[in-house]
Amino acid sequence: MTTGYEVFKASDVPPDVKSNGRVSWYLVNPSRCGVNAFALNLHVTQPRGMGPAHVHEDASETFLFIEGRAKMTIGDEEFVCGPDTVAHVRSGVSHGFDNVGESELKFITIFDPPLPMHR
Prior knowledge:
This protein is mostly beta strands. The chain has a single domain, classed as Jelly Rolls (Sandwich), CATH 2.60.120.10.
């Protein structure tokens, strides 16, 4: 990291394959790029796959949906999210999603600050 920049393909980063139909790539974070202010991840979820409801006590999470269709639950509310939809979840708020489409759901998450798993 002596150059002051990083250029790479997301597909060159080792994936984290989860049991709920989702694959994640941890792209920009303290351990990979030396960025301490945030973490940026790419996720692909198969039809009927999901991210179970959970809470981040010490970090906000922002979602940018690129492809597919999700039903996202934030607190007690549900939202249908498709391409170009942004959802920002503040720390301490429960959130989760289901891929309700017939195709892969692709989205980016940004954590502020990075979670311990990103370090």
